[in-house]
Amino acid sequence: VSPSAIAVRAAGPADAARIAELHDRFKDYLRSLGDDTDFKFDARVYLRDGFGEHPAFGGLVAECDGVVAGYLLHHPAYDVDRAMRQLFVADLFVEERFRGRGVGRALMDGAAEVCSRMGGGEVLWTVFAPNRLAHDFYRGLGAEYLADLQLMRLAVRPRPA
Ligand SMILES: CC(C)(COP(=O)(O)OP(=O)(O)OC[C@H]1O[C@@H](n2cnc3c(N)ncnc32)[C@H](O)[C@@H]1OP(=O)(O)O)[C@@H](O)C(=O)NCCC(=O)NCCS
């Protein structure tokens, strides 16, 4: 597949089943690396949280000859100190048989385009430490580590409006 045969477009409700299928493979891959997260994302969650009045994330899919080869989910972020809108990439996966053909790069380029269009100046994401493949891919794109920042979290009980 030449790069010109890769078409990146916004993900819609009709992509739910395929994105859930790809996410399942991603989950298996992360588990094989030792990720013991209680994975809960599926097609129902994609439709519930990705659409409606207040979507929690947006998405892109990359098609090769009409087949969805990979997807990327994203949501806005903001850096107060630098007064900069950012785009956070929450998920990126390319099906094994489509890898090494520029699909991942095309999806990251698509995320940069979404970011730029919302006035943002930076795309960021987290990488599971043992996921060497992803580290190599991102370094190849020219991304840098935020060595002076540590990601933290505090559990909260959801109380939907
Ligand atoms: C990481 C991933 C998205 C890359 O997708 P891909 O479609 O194979 O990547 P591309 O073909 O667009 O590669 C883009 C560049 O990265 C390089 N690259 C891709 N995989 C690489 C690897 N494992 N090691 C080194 N370089 C790599 C390619 O050589 C290419 O460089 P070039 O454009 O200079 O030729 C894909 O391997 C994947 O889905 N992995 C499993 C899920 C995952 O880890 N996602 C990221 C979670 S944070």
Task: List ligands, each type once.
Answer: coenzyme A
Number of distinct helices: 4
Low-confidence runs of at least 5 consecutive residues? none
Shape: globular
Q: What does the model show?
A:
There is one protein chain. With 161 residues, this protein is α+β, with helices and mostly antiparallel strands. It has helices spanning 16-32, 43-50, 103-117, 132-140, and strands at residues 6-10, 58-64, 67-79, 84-94, 122-124. The protein has a five-stranded mixed sheet. Helix 3 links the parallel strand 4 (84-94) and strand 5 (122-124). Helix 1 (16-32) crosses helix 2 (43-50). The model has no long low-confidence stretch (mean pLDDT 96). Residues 26, 29, 92-94, 99-105, 125, 127, 131, 133-134, 136-137, 140 line the site of coenzyme A.
Tag the structure with descriptive keywords.
24% strand; 30% helix; alpha+beta; five-stranded mixed β-sheet; 4 helices; binds coenzyme A; 161 residues
Quick rundown:
The chain is of the alpha+beta class. Helix content is 30%, strand content 24%.
Topology diagram in text:
Layout: E1 6-10, H1 16-32, H2 43-50, E2 58-64, E3 67-79, E4 84-94, H3 103-117, E5 122-124, H4 132-140
Parallel strand pairs: 4-5
Antiparallel strand pairs: 1-2, 2-3, 3-4
Bound molecules: coenzyme A.
Coenzyme A binds next to helix 1, strand 4, helix 3 and helix 4.
